[in-house]
Design goal:
The chain has 544 residues and is of the alpha/beta class. It is built from 14 helices and 18 strands. Helix 8 runs antiparallel to helix 9 and helix 13 runs antiparallel to helix 14. It is globular and about 85 Å long. The two termini are 44 Å apart. Bound molecules: glutamine (GLN). It is found in: Cytoplasm, Cytosol.
Length: 544
């Protein structure tokens, strides 16, 4: 295999001004990175254990995150002391503040008498004379600030060389700044939306103090990424990848197509449990619309035959669908690879496209505690045994909103860019009980009507995920003066930002009645429609 990785353009952290976030395991660390990206500033997160000598780029500034530990514990995590020698501005948030104070003197941090959790009013203190530069962090935010706190430890004294730039009732050192170096610490969390002026504060740090340029846009990223893909794959190399019709795989596929044309081979497997007309529509959009070299494999019978008789075990449904998908993808990949090998000007298939996003990367590298073993990133490439494919992950640096912006940039239609997520096992986990061809028909038709009405009423973008599920029970109804005994549909629609927690969408009853009327009238085999009102937790977004 030729080494095509020489002369590959460097990754974003060497091109764009980068703020490095070092993670101490807070559940909010990824939000710091997101807020920076929303400000068009490139930012990456690494675990707090990162050795500075092994860092492949020089950040414009460093943010130390919060974390669940106490800095004075014997096994508490600490940053490489070289962080304080780099000569770049540092902002410590909560545990990060305590880490800065502890670094200066281990006596500076103690357990507080009481925990402080929730809103607090911050009093910003201005300085004049030779220490006036310490005001930069709160510049323009001088009024009493509504902030959000979540800590039990506190600074017992002001570390030597620092001044106090903010106080709160329970935290006399809620904000500190070094008199000479550009080091700042705050006890509250500016990255959460409960802190009213959090984003302007992060901007003050990144732009005014670190001098980071706000040039991270998808417009600037796309050309560089296309160059990087071309250099990585080389002039003849070929790539294979699965597409589903969802936003991530479509954006990744379009990007590959822009970079290497038909040397990117997309495969879509129709598993028989897709939405109404989905395989046909995806094919049209991706081929006629976006020009992607796509093979659609109709394997519905193979999947549905395997699913027959599986009733009470949702995990079994997932396994059958997952394993069969891999088998089919593998068979097709080998066929395409064999055909490609014979062609005159094309090389071997060496690469597998993966639609990994930055939240997946964050999840796999975030700091899980002093004794936790690092989880290796789940690698689909290994499943394609015998092909020895290398992974190519063009969306690896991007958050979901950035993937959407990139999709728009690449000319992908709006309704696809904003499409709700759809699970790999498809309707099979929205059909409770046995998946038969007739149950699939009912679920598809009911789902189509629900989504159609949601779009007509203008709710689609407000909702994060919506679908109709089919329950395995029958109820009595009267239709056309005739008693019927038919099945029940459960509608589900949730709002969420991270899919970890979710609220039920608040439809007007009139809207729900309209959907119910249409489903009962138009879908044979259904006589009742329910609205599912369980939040997550305790419910999950999908049914099985
Ligand atoms: N564990 C530390 C405390 O309780 C830090 C908390 C945090 O970073 N949110 O003060």
């Amino acid at each position: 295999m030729a080494d095509s990785t020489t002369n590959v353009p460097p990754p974003p952290h060497t091109i764009f001004d980068t703020i490095l976030v070092l993670d101490f395991g807070s559940q909010y660390t990824h939000l710091i990175t997101r807020r920076l990206r929303e400000l068009s500033i490139y930012s990456e997160m690494l675990p707090c254990t990162q050795k500075i000598s092994e860092l492949s780029f020089k950040p414009k500034g460093i943010i130390l995150s919060g974390g669940p530990y106490s800095v004075y514990w014997d096994d508490a995590p600490h940053v490489d002391p070289a962080v304080f020698e780099m000569g770049v501005p540092i902002l410590g948030i909560c545990y990060g503040l305590q880490e800065i104070a502890w670094h200066s003197d281990q006596k500076n941090v103690v357990a507080g008498e009481k925990r402080e959790y929730g809103h607090a009013i911050l009093n910003v203190q201005k300085h004049s004379g030779k220490t006036a530069h310490v005001d930069a962090l709160f510049s323009g935010l001088e009024e009493d600030m509504d902030v959000w706190m979540s800590h039990g430890d506190k600074l017992s004294q002001r570390p030597a060389g620092f001044v106090t730039v903010a106080t709160s009732e329970n935290a006399p050192f809620a904000g500190i700044a070094h008199e000479e170096k550009e080091w700042f610490g705050i006890q509250f969390h500016p990255e959460v939306t409960h802190t009213k002026k959090g984003t302007p504060l992060i901007k003050n740090f990144a732009v005014s103090i670190c001098g980071a340029k706000q040039d991270w846009t998808m417009d600037a990223f796309v050309g560089k990424e296309i160059d990087r893909i071309r250099a990585l794959v080389g002039p003849k190399g070929q790539v294979i990848g699965a597409v589903s019709g969802g936003v991530d795989s479509t954006v990744a596929a379009k990007l590959m197509h822009e970079a290497i044309g038909d040397r990117f081979h997309a495969i879509m497997v129709d598993n028989g449990v897709l939405r109404l007309n989905e395989a046909k529509q995806v094919k049209e959009t991706l081929t006629a619309g976006l020009g992607i070299n796509l093979t659609v494999i109709d394997a519905s019978d193979r999947f549905l035959d395997l699913l027959a008789g599986v009733k009470d075990d949702p995990e079994k449904k997932r396994k059958i669908i997952g394993n069969t998908f891999i088998e089919i993808f593998q068979e097709k990949a080998k066929e395409i690879a064999a055909a490609a090998k014979g062609s005159a000007n094309e090389g071997e298939i060496e690469w597998l496209l993966q639609g990994t996003l930055y939240p997946d990367v964050i999840e796999s590298i975030s700091f899980k505690g002093p004794s936790a073993t690092i989880k290796t990133h789940h690698n689909v490439g290994g499943l394609l045994e015998g092909m020895h494919l290398k992974l190519i992950e063009p969306l690896r640096e991007l958050f979901k909103d950035e993937v959407r912006a990139l999709g728009t940039q690449l000319g992908i239609p709006e309704d696809l860019v904003w499409r709700h997520p759809f699970p790999g096992p498809g309707l099979a986990i929205r059909i409770i009980g046995e998946v038969t061809r007739d149950q699939v028909r009912i679920a598809q038709q009911a789902d189509f009507i629900f989504i159609d009405e949601i779009k007509k009423a203008g709710y689609y973008k407000q909702i994060s995920q919506a679908y109709a599920a089919l329950l395995p029970v029958k109820a009595v109804g009267v239709m056309g003066d005739k008693r019927v005994h038919a099945q029940v549909i459960a509608l589900r629609a949730v709002e969420t930002t991270d899919f970890m927690t979710a609220d039920v969408f608040d439809f007007p009853t009139k809207f729900l009645s309209k959907v119910s009327t249409r489903i009962v009238n138009e879908v044979d085999g259904v006589c009742r429609v329910l609205y599912e009102v369980t939040s997550k937790p305790p419910g999950t977004i999908e049914m099985e």
